[in-house]
Amino acid sequence: MKRDIIVIGGGAGGLAAAIAAKEENKDVLLIEREDRLGGILNQCIHNGFGLEVFKEEYTGPEYAEKFIEKARHLKIDYLLNTTVISLTKEEDEFILYTSSLAEGIQKYTSKAVIMTTGCYERTRGSIVIPGDRPKGVITAGSAQRYLNIDGYMVGKKVFILGSGDIGLIMARRMHLEGASVLGVAELMPYSNGLTRNIVQCLNDFDIPLYLSHTVTEVVADEKHRLTQITIQQVNERFEPIQGTEKKFDVDTLLLSIGLIPDVTLLDNLPVETDPLTKSVKINQACETSVPGLFIAGNSLQVHDLADNVSKESERAGHHAADYIDMKRTKEKGIPVQAGDHILYVTPQYIDFSWGNAEIICSFRSRKKIEKAALNVTQNGKTLIRKRLNFVVPAEMETFELNIEDIDGIGDIRVDLEVLS
Amino acid sequence: MKKEFICIVCPRGCHITVHEDGSITGNMCKRGIEYVKTEMTAPKRIVTSTVRTVFSEMPRVSVKTDRPVPKELIMDVMKELSKVIITTPMSLGDVVIENILDTGANIVLTRSCMK
Ligand SMILES: Cc1cc2nc3c(=O)[nH]c(=O)nc-3n(C[C@H](O)[C@H](O)[C@H](O)COP(=O)(O)OP(=O)(O)OC[C@H]3O[C@@H](n4cnc5c(N)ncnc54)[C@H](O)[C@@H]3O)c2cc1C
Ligand code: SF4
């Protein structure tokens, strides 16, 4: 049976997308690889979720439950323990193959697909840890999962490399569980986590944050277990500075060095990729260059707030429903370019065939700017100019464009201007 | 003396300054003022953690204090939580420990356990 819409991934994104599409009376199937819905929210037991969407502060599991309840209430079909292993498109039909212990390999088809597969953790990436990786070097997200879901502490003497939110949250979590957390080293001169997490996860417990530092040596014993690390300060070219070595005796090094959108499923589709987001390009309807293929949440761009994932995915759900209702001739659209001090911007295109869709743009800055002006221009004309205070790469910013202001030709540029 | 705070009430993380004359600037909403006032007198935090269960499908279940508790009691709250074992199915919001350490806060489940 051909479905209207298949949603891949049942985290914050997939739930909101499925709910929005179902509320427009579409026939929706949600497919999730794990044994429960909620995605990464299940292991984020700290609070800080829901302030935007519900005006109240919830923990991750509570926030997930709000959406799971709604999905149940709407009787949305879903599959658990089922992994989508391939996604292709023939004519107007998407073809998905899934794998599960209970059902083996199955085939599903649909008119539209929403990708909400989340992101994965960078394990080494640009940060080279010399030597081979001993036992005790693991990603912060895996440690979080072991501790919060399985109830298993990965170590007693911990150091954290990278100041991403997961690292900061885990610093506090492991401290509270009785581990000694010796410090957090961050390569950049600023933290990559939300400011509030620096305050309530590090400062509250006097855990030191070493900015412009990295791990330059790891030592293991004969059983291949981590015993010691060395951190060093780095210069502007990120080269270690001699004489700044500090040694720490540890049994665990947690890596919190970045998240990357998981779009491996799109390898066989002619999607246009974006080296800036490390995902694919979309128009204002969250639609990729493949008509009917929508994407949202952390698989589109890594979000720091679940609330933004929910809102973005809800829009993707509405637009996918719209796509089912109305044939349109897809245009490539007007490119939106990331200009000065902008790390990336989404959507990357404004498509006039989606003229009824709101244009909510998200971006991140490349560096910390105390007083900035956001300038959005096209053909020398200003579309938006607004003041922003404390712009940091760790916090995603948004703005809205009005389709009536946009010319039918000429790139849109998004720049940040540093004000003194 | 001028004092700087980062408000942690919501993810916006406003940088708030308390000036010598007692005036407060930098907060984008009035909850920021409340935050700075308690932070200067008796800082409080919500504690989130997990407690053990007897169920192999869900060996741990997440909990929180349903209101902020004094910062200096956080470790004592953790100690109390380590003594808890959930033995019967319970729902999200159910109280595990009432009025923990006389703080007026209850420990409640933040997800359902086997229910
Ligand atoms: C440690 C941490 C702390 C955070 N703290 C906060 C906070 O305090 N406040 C806040 O608002 N936000 C926070 N966030 C951000 C927020 O939780 C996430 O951005 C959001 O939950 C991500 O939702 P998602 O649906 O995009 O991805 P996910 O939750 O990762 O969901 C993706 C789902 O897709 C499934 N999947 C992937 N591939 C397949 C496949 N091939 N087949 C089937 N299923 C598949 C996965 O199993 C997963 O369930 C935090 C995030 C992390 C990691
Ligand atoms: S002052 Fe208001 S807006 Fe600013 S961080 Fe605090 S609660 Fe949020």
Outline the fold blueprint.
The complex is a heterodimer of chains A (420) and B (115).
Chain A: E1 2-8, H1 12-23, E2 28-31, E3 47-49, E4 58-59, H2 60-73, E5 77-79, E6 83-90, E7 93-100, E8 104-115, E9 119-121, E10 137-139, H3 140-150, E11 157-161, H4 165-176, E12 180-186, H5 195-202, E13 209-211, E14 213-220, E15 226-233, E16 246-249, E17 252-255, E18 259-261, E19 273-274, E20 279-280, E21 293-295, H6 306-325, E22 334-338, E23 342-346, E24 349-350, E25 359-365, E26 369-378, E27 381-391, E28 397-401, E29 412-418
Parallel strand pairs in A: 1-2, 1-8, 2-5, 8-21, 10-17, 11-12, 11-17, 12-13, 22-29
Antiparallel strand pairs in A: 3-4, 6-7, 7-8, 9-18, 14-15, 15-16, 19-20, 22-24, 23-25, 25-28, 26-27, 26-29
Chain B: E1 3-6, E2 15-18, E3 24-25, H1 31-41, E4 44-45, E5 48-53, E6 60-65, E7 69-70, H2 74-82, E8 85-86, E9 95-97, E10 107-109
Parallel strand pairs in B: 5-8
Antiparallel strand pairs in B: 1-2, 2-3, 4-7, 5-6, 6-10, 9-10
Bound molecules: flavin-adenine dinucleotide (FAD) and iron/sulfur cluster.
| CATH topology-level fold name of the largest domain in chain B | CPE0013-like fold
Distance between the termini of chain A: 61 Å
Quaternary state reads heterodimer
| Content of β-strand of chain B | 25-35%
CA gyration radius of chain A, whole angstroms:
22 Å
Q: Approximately how much helix is present in the residues of chain B? A: 10-25%
Shape of chain A: globular
State the end-to-end CA separation of chain B: 54 Å
Mean pLDDT across the residues of chain B is 93
Task: Write the element-wise H/E pattern of chain B from the N-terminal end onward.
Answer: EEEHEEEEHEEE
Alpha plus pi helix count of chain A: 6
Question: What percent of residues of chain A are in strands?
Answer: 35-45%
Q: Determine the fraction of residues in helical runs of chain A and give it as a percent range.
A: 10-25%
Q: What is the name of the CATH class of the largest domain in chain B?
A: Alpha Beta
